Inverse folding.
């Protein structure tokens, strides 16, 4: 009898085990509803739906700064997705990419690039006047903006940039150093401090702030006003400062980067070979003078 009961037990267990099935999902998720954006002057809400529950890796940046976008990771699995980005600059074009993974790690499924422009407001109009060098108008728009908005890093930086353009270098620097205390990763402020130190002849700080910018984005551009300040000028200013500090090797590294970008070729200059001390058909007696000429030609072509 005992043997019969044991046999029946195993028979039941075997029958129950035969009903267990495992299904492996190797189907990639899809975006089933069009991605929508709802913009404000300093924020955007981005929404979409997916064919199954997904986690998201979300990348975004201002349109001109696409090499190193900001990245947000949303690990919760869901089919209806809503993301809100805040602290954006007004009247600036941004882009974003959505990367999806389902529960079985199928992915990434990457969306098409989504572009949006934040709405304009008094602050963006202020920057338009800064770009046009109408600084009194810029100050008035900043004042109007602050009547209904709190002081922030952006408004402090705007005031600092106005001071810089008015030649009030010390006041601009003081504001920018305060901003560093509030937000030591605010890249536009690095650019401001770089310009301040260039004007004051502090070459060591020009190099420092230039590295701070390029380490974060080697193709950075100043998108907040109509200005030529971009990664090319940063390389050029760093090359000039390195030359003044007799760091010829690092100086030439920046020259070679720009030479390739601007002219599509290497400069060909070598420190120990005098016959290479030639720039655009002009020969020079010293390696240092060759670098000086190269920097000037770069400034003329960016």
């Amino acid at each position: 009898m005992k043997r019969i009961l044991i046999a029946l037990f195993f028979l039941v267990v075997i029958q129950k085990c035969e009903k267990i099935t495992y299904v492996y999902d190797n189907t990639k998720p899809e975006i089933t509803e069009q991605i929508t954006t709802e913009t404000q002057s300093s924020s955007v809400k981005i929404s979409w739906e997916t064919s199954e529950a997904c986690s998201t890796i979300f990348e975004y940046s201002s349109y001109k700064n696409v090499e190193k976008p900001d990245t947000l990771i949303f690990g919760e699995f869901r089919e209806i997705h809503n993301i809100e980005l805040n602290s954006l600059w007004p009247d600036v074009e941004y882009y974003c990419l959505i990367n999806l993974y389902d529960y079985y790690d199928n992915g990434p499924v990457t969306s098409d690039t989504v572009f949006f422009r934040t709405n304009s407001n008094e602050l963006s109009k202020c920057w338009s006047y800064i770009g046009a060098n109408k600084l009194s108008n810029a100050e008035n728009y900043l004042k109007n903006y602050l009547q209904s908005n709190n002081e922030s890093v952006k408004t402090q930086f705007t005031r600092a940039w106005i001071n810089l353009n008015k030649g009030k270098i010390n006041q601009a620097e003081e504001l920018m150093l305060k901003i560093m205390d509030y937000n030591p990763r605010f890249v536009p402020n690095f650019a401001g401090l770089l310009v301040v130190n260039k004007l004051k002849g502090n070459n060591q700080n020009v190099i420092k702030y230039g590295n701070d910018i390029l380490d974060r984005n080697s193709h950075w551009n100043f998108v907040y006003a109509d200005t030529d300040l971009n990664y090319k000028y940063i390389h050029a200013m760093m090359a000039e400062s390195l030359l003044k500090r007799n760091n010829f090797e690092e100086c030439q590294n920046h020259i070679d980067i720009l030479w390739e970008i601007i002219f599509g070729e290497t400069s060909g200059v070598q420190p120990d070979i005098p016959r290479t001390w030639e720039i655009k058909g002009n020969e020079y007696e010293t390696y240092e003078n060759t670098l000086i000429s190269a920097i000037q030609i770069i400034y003329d072509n960016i």
In short: Residues 230-302 form one domain. The mean pLDDT is 89. The longest strand covers residues 44-62. The longest helix spans residues 2-18.
